[in-house]
Structures are given as C-alpha cells and as structure tokens.
C-alpha cells in the first residue's frame, strides 16, 4: 500500500526517519554508551590478527560500501577495500583467514554478491553481511550479520536500503574501534551522540521536499547531469547519479571532483548541469574551487550545501539545503535531496518510477 504517496519510491524515501531509527534501535545502549550487535558474533574476531576487510556489493550497495571504507578506516583504523562483487568473484582475490568479507545487500539474493561471499569463504575468510531481507541467503550463509531493519523495499531504485547500511557501517566502525581499545569513553559517547541525530536530520530534509521539487521542475528536461563529490561524499555523487539515471533515463555521470581536470571538464557547457556535493567538511574549499571552475565554463551548478552557506548560494544557480551534521554523518543527510530530486524529475517526466525499464528489484542471475 502506497498510502498518500504516488509511488513506493516516494513512500520509501519518507520512511527513512523510521527506518534509520529502527536500524539503531536496540543496538545503542545509551546507559552504558556502547553498541551491541549480537548477530555479528564480533567476539570471534581476533583483531590483532585481522589484516583487513573486503567489502563486496553491487550498485547502490557498493556506494554504501565506499562510505563504509571511510568510516571503518577513520574510526577503527582497519584497512578496507571495496569491490564490485562481479569483479571480486572472478579475480582470485588475495584473501585468507585473517580477512573479513563484508557483503552489503538489500535483497540478500544478488547472485554476484553471494558468489563473492562464497569465494571469500573458500579462502578461509570470515564472512559477514549487512542485509535487509530477513531470512535471505546473504543473511543465512554468514558467520555474522547486521540486519538493516529498513522493512520491505518495493521501488526498484533503492533509497531506505541505502541509508540504513550507512548507519550500520558507522555503528560497526565504532564497535570495532571499541573492541580494539581505540576509543575513550568520551569519544565513544560522542560518536553515539552524533549518529543518534540522524533521524531528525533526515526529517529536516524531508520537510524540504517542496523546495527540491521546484528545482526538479527546472532540470527535468536536461539530457545530462554531472555529479561531483570528494572524500566521504564522493560515493554520494555516484549514488545521486545512479538514482537519476535509473528512474529518469537522464544520462548522469559521477566523478571524484579532483578528476575533473583529467578529462571530464571538457564536457562542461551550458547544457551540462553540474551537481556538486558541498557540505561543510574538510573537502569544502576544494569543492568550492570546482564549482567556480564549472561556472567559469558556462555550466549551470546545483549544490548540496549546509544551511547558512552564503558562499555556496552566491556561486550556485540552485541550492539543495541540508542541515549541519558531523562530517562522518553527512553522507546520510546529503543523499536525501538527491533521492528526492531524482524521484520528482522522473515523476514529472511521467515515467514508471517504481518499475524502471530493463531493471529488476533483485538480480538473481549474473
Ligand atoms: C539501484 C539498486 C541496485 C542495487 C543492486 C544490489 O537503486 O537498487 O543498484 O543496489 O542491484 O542489490 P542488493 O542490495 O539487493 O544486493
């Protein structure tokens, strides 16, 4: 049932306050300021011997994994590689019993992801998953799992099953850092306090749907869009572009912003709008100079910017405003206006948002 919503995708976008609350519920023990995920069996891991984590996933889940690399390396200081499952499974990857394979999958039935898990297991690695569909293969065939608790996702374009694993990866990173003895009690409660704000921050973004819809109306007929991001928000550029292309059929590409001068900047003219993910973080200055370069070449620029950023709004043609957040939490917040924008552009183009052409919700063949 779609309730008051036109499409499941819109409903699922709006469910994110609840889904993100759920994915934290029962995991954060506020009394002891600790994180507990019993289904992960984390006590079986010998962190002194652990060489690294290999995240395997496809599509949107792969983008979530890229954010996870930042979080785990930054907070838990464990090396992480992120691989597309269909590549990993055929590469004879260098994995042994001192690695963890961490699969991320909404459906838990994606053939390539399951095969990548199997490949890891054959080589003796511990296999973990972050998975939404309860009882799915990727939940059962593991040494430990985190359930996203996002609830069923019907729209083919993944939304709430993208943000839930971002929160799960953050919790996992904090939990592993804690097991390694890296965090003081104060640091731990600080991390917990920041992630606990996420549902409210997401709620603020949802309240701004009408502003995003107005911007969607301006860009709905564009043929191309270039998404740029850096650092922990680089995967958000990829995710924003994927959302737009899969449901609106607009050609959208994403690049780490620093790559522009190595080729893609040649694409920029008045017919190539640029979407820059520009929250307040350590990459801000670099992103601003990218926006200036795009403007200098006649491009229209839309930015995802933090409330009160007058520099961003003076440079950009349009702004998707997000509330201020801790930098490691920004990806969860910054993706919201991009989901909403893609949704409204596709709906305005009269397309079948929930069932885009050529796509299936669960890719059980390679
Ligand atoms: C895009 C999308 C896909 C899936 C991918 C993996 O919106 O939904 O890219 O993320 O097919 O699916 P799961 O997570 O079920 O393994």
TrEMBL record:
Source superkingdom: Bacteria
User: Where does it live in the cell?
Assistant: Cytoplasm
Name the predominant localization.
cytoplasm
Which UniProt keywords are present, listed alphabetically?
Answer: Aminotransferase, Cytoplasm, Glutamine amidotransferase, Repeat, Transferase
EC number(s): the record gives 2.6.1.16
Offer a single GO CC term for the protein.
Answer: cytosol
Q: Report the catalytic activity.
A: D-fructose 6-phosphate + L-glutamine = D-glucosamine 6-phosphate + L-glutamate
Catalytic positions?
A: 361
Instruction: Cite the SIS domain residue spans from the record.
Output: 42-182, 215-356
Q: Which is an annotated GO molecular function term of this record?
A: carbohydrate derivative binding
Question: What's a single GO BP term from this record?
Answer: fructose 6-phosphate metabolic process
Does the UniProt entry include the keyword Cytoplasm? yes
Under the subunit heading, UniProt states: Homodimer.
Q: What does this protein do?
A: Catalyzes the first step in hexosamine metabolism, converting fructose-6P into glucosamine-6P using glutamine as a nitrogen source.
Question: What is this protein's record name?
Answer: Glutamine--fructose-6-phosphate aminotransferase [isomerizing]
Q: What is the scientific name of the source organism?
A: Pelolinea submarina
Q: Which residues of the full protein are shown?
A: 248 to 613 of 613
């Amino acid at each position: 049932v779609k309730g008051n919503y036109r499409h499941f995708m819109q409903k699922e976008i709006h469910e994110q306050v609840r889904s993100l609350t759920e994915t934290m519920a029962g995991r954060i023990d506020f009394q002891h300021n600790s994180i507990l995920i019993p289904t992960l069996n984390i006590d079986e891991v010998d962190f002194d011997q652990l060489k690294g984590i290999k995240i395997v996933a496809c599509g949107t889940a792969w983008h979530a994994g890229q954010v996870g690399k930042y979080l785990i390396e930054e907070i838990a200081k464990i090396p992480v590689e992120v691989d597309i499952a269909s590549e990993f499974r055929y590469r004879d990857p260098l994995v042994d019993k001192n690695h963890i394979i961490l699969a991320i999958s909404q459906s838990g039935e994606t053939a390539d992801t399951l095969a990548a898990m199997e490949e890891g297991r054959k080589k003796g690695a511990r296999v973990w998953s972050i998975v939404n569909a309860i009882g799915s293969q990727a939940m059962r065939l593991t040494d430990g799992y985190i359930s996203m608790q996002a609830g069923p996702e019907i729209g083919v374009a993944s939304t709430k099953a993208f943000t839930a694993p971002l929160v799960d990866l953050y919790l996992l990173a904090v939990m592993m850092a804690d097991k390694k003895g890296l965090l003081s009690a104060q640091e731990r409660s600080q991390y917990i306090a920041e992630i606990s704000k996420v549902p409210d921050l997401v709620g603020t973004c949802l309240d701004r749907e009408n502003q995003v819809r107005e911007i969607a109306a301006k860009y709905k007929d564009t043929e191309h869009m270039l998404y740029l991001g850096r650092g922990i928000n680089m995967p958000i550029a990829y995710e924003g572009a994927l959302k737009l292309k899969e449901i609106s059929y607009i050609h959208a590409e994403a690049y780490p912003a620093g790559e522009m001068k190595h080729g893609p900047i040649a694409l920029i003219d008045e017919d190539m709008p640029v979407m820059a993910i520009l929250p307040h973080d350590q990459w801000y200055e670099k992103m601003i100079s990218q926006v200036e370069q795009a403007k200098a070449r006649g491009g229209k620029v839309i930015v995802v910017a933090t409330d009160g950023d007058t520099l961003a709004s003076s440079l950009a043609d349009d702004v998707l405003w997000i509330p201020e957040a801790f930098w490691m939490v920004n990806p969860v917040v910054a993706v919201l206006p991009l989901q909403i924008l893609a949704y409204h552009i596709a709906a305005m183009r009269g397309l079948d948002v929930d069932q885009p052409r050529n796509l299936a919700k669960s890719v059980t063949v390679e």
